[in-house]
């Protein structure tokens, strides 16, 4: 019995030893509080930027001093112009940590108007969430923003509120002594004027709103992959959704670039959750998107649609780049393995995204580009793709890009499995995905390329009278570039069965700042200097208008684009069409020759001629807006452009 007891005792002792052996090392974590335990979970690193080992003089200063300088810059950005100082700002989430005095900045502001009494907001700290990583922004969105969810593929689904698209009628540009003569104003222009005072009222409203919040998101990023001509932008916003959107859409700085960022060239104040005052002069609704080129600032009130930030910066580039003799373009761009670059222009529904995305070519960008003396460069660091009716079969690159880090706007998903239904239009037809451009497998990084070899203008002609492909002269390229034509088919619920022509100058009238002829003249000059060829490609109807004819097969259009890329279309015979005077090839490999001349595809030749004249008349009516604008020496360039348009005998 004693032996047995001893055995049991030894067994118990061994059991206790075995437990200790299973948990090697110290049995408890040496911390005093649960907060300390949580602090061990996260290793310290630079915010949302890759590490860099390249030394610079800036690294000689302490981390504390760097933080102080960054916060002083942010405080200056958030400064009310009616007070002597900017807000007290501190890095970090107010819900996660208490502020430290060393991370607080409070800097003087430039006084423009008399100082007023100190308000409650000046007594509080504004917590700055600075250049957060996508993972950190996910946490902020899901925890604090209603309507934010992680989908089955890892993307962040979110809602943009009541506005699910841009509000061009609520966009304003400050008209001052400089911009009065520089910008395009009046009929046809997207630029609706406002004065400096009204802008400052809205700016003050936005800044006061942002300063009243417990925390704001600040992104310091770049525009333009060309390092010689990039622009530093700062985006101050109230939502993690907006911060992640801009993280994806702008160029993301390295750690070294971020630490040397300094003062931004342009600042966006996104207070979209807060309305503008309708009694403010020039306001027509509770929404206002205001651009002040003199102050290099943009204010957003009354709309949470993230695309306003993207396109506001695009408008900025349309103003800044031409001053440097750089052409800003609303286009797609890709490059062949031999280094040949093609630009694709086209309005919605023309196939710009589909045709510029080619697995045999490198993607430079899908939407916004610059053409400088050194070549082409993408303005953005991401893609903003339409998602309506998206399928893996038709758009595999976009489908596969919708993963962790991607923002999905206004989509509908299964409440349990979180699988997105891309065909569901319950919220809006304008569903979108914003993702870093690196998510595209055949992207060219950095997103730059040599001078374009081909400039392709896409039109979905629902009238069915434009050829599938035409080679353009320089003046014809300018004419059709300024026109920016496509045709839309109205919904049957409106009782309209005929196609409707739509024109958008430079294929992006909503974003251009200068007169369209200035961009066209720059395009022609660069094409001439670098030997680029212009093409007009019709992705619309053949054999009759919409309802009678049929849409040109995508496979045929791809063969045409392939022939343009290969250069084979430069070595075939051409015939000139009547009225529009377009040069059409007599043969394209892989495309039936009979469809190359649209007249051949119409059984009713008289109907073809009448429809052709009708479309020509629409072109001429649209172009009347531009006829009085003189460009070139002795107005020569204007006359060349006008002569390149359609000619009607009875005109």
UniProtKB/TrEMBL annotation:
Q: Name one GO cellular component term.
A: cytosol
Q: Which GO terms describe its biological process?
A: gluconeogenesis
Polar residues compositional bias: what residue ranges? Answer: 1-10
- Enzyme Commission (EC) number: 4.1.1.49
* Primary location: cytoplasm
Does the keyword ATP-binding belong to this entry? yes
Where does this one sit in the cell? Cytoplasm
Please tell me which top-level EC class this enzyme sits in. Answer: lyase
In what ranges is there compositional bias, type Low complexity? 46-57
Stretches for region Disordered = 1-57
- HAMAP family cross-referenced by the UniProt entry: PEPCK_ATP
Give the family per the record.
Answer: Belongs to the phosphoenolpyruvate carboxykinase (ATP) family.
Q: What is this protein called?
A: phosphoenolpyruvate carboxykinase (ATP)
Q: Which organism is it from?
A: Psophocarpus tetragonolobus
Traced from the root, the source organism's taxonomic lineage reads: Eukaryota, Viridiplantae, Streptophyta, Embryophyta, Tracheophyta
């Amino acid at each position: 019995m004693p032996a047995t007891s001893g055995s049991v005792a030894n067994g118990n002792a061994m059991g206790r030893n075995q437990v200790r052996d299973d948990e090697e090392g110290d049995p408890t974590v040496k911390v005093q509080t649960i907060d300390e335990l949580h602090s061990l979970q996260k290793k310290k690193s630079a915010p949302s930027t890759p590490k860099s080992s390249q030394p610079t003089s800036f690294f000689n200063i302490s981390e504390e001093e760097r933080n102080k300088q960054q916060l002083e810059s942010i405080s200056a950005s958030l400064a009310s112009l009616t007070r002597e100082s900017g807000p007290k700002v501190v890095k970090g989430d107010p819900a996660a940590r208490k502020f430290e005095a060393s991370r607080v900045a409070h800097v003087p502001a430039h006084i423009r108007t008399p100082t007023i009494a100190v308000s409650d907001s000046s007594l509080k700290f504004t917590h700055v969430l600075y250049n957060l990583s996508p993972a950190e922004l996910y946490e902020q969105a899901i925890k604090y923003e209603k309507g934010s969810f992680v989908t089955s593929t890892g993307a962040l689904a979110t809602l943009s509120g009541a506005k699910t698209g841009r509000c061009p009628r609520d966009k304003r540009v400050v008209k001052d002594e400089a911009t009065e003569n520089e910008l395009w104003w009046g009929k046809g222009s997207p630029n609706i004027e406002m004065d400096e005072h009204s802008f400052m009222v809205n700016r003050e409203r936005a800044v006061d709103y942002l300063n009243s919040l417990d925390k704001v998101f600040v992104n310091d990023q770049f525009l333009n992959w060309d390092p010689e001509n990039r622009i530093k932008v700062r985006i101050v916003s109230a939502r993690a959704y907006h911060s992640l959107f801009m993280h994806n859409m702008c160029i993301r700085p390295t750690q070294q670039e971020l630490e040397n960022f300094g003062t931004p060239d342009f600042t966006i104040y996104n207070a979209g959750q807060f309305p503008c005052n309708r009694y403010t002069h020039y306001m027509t609704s509770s929404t206002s998107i205001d651009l002040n080129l003199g102050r290099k600032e943009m204010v957003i009130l009354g709309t949470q649609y993230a695309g306003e930030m993207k396109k506001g910066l695009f408008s900025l580039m349309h103003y800044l780049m031409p001053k440097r003799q750089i052409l800003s373009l609303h286009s797609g761009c890709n490059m062949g393995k031999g280094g040949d670059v093609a630009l694709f222009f086209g309005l919605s529904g023309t196939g710009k995204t589909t045709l510029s995305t080619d697995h045999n070519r490198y993607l430079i960008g899908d939407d916004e580009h610059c053409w400088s003396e050194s070549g082409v460069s993408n303005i953005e660091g991401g893609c903003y793709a339409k998602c309506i009716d998206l399928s893996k079969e038709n758009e595999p690159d976009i489908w596969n890009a919708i993963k962790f880090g991607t923002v999905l706007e206004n989509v509908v998903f299964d409440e349990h499995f979180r699988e997105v239904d891309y065909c569901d239009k319950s919220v809006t037809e304008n569903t979108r995905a914003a993702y870093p451009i690196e998510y595209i497998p055949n992207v060219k990084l950095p997103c730059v390329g040599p001078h374009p070899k081909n400039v392709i203008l896409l039109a979905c002609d629902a009238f069915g009278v434009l050829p599938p492909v035409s080679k353009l002269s320089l003046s014809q390229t300018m004419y059709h570039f300024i026109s920016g034509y496509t045709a839309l088919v109205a919904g049957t619920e409106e009782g309209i069965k005929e196609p409707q022509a739509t024109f958008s100058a430079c294929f992006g009238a909503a974003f251009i700042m200068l007169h369209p002829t200035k961009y066209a003249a720059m395009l022609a000059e660069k094409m001439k200097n670098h030997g680029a060829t212009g093409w007009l490609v019709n992705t619309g109807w053949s054999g009759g208008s919409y309802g009678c004819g049929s849409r040109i097969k995508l496979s045929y259009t791809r063969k045409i684009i392939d022939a343009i890329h290969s250069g084979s279309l430069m070595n075939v015979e051409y015939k000139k069409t009547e009225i529009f005077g377009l040069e059409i090839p007599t043969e394209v490999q892989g495309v039936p020759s009979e469809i190359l001349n649209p007249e051949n595809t119409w059984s009713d030749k008289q109907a073809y001629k009448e429809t052709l004249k009708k479309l020509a008349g629409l072109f001429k009516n649209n172009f009347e807006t531009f006829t009085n604008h003189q460009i070139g020496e002795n107005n020569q360039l204007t006359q060349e452009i006008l002569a390149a348009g359609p000619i009607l005998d009875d005109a």
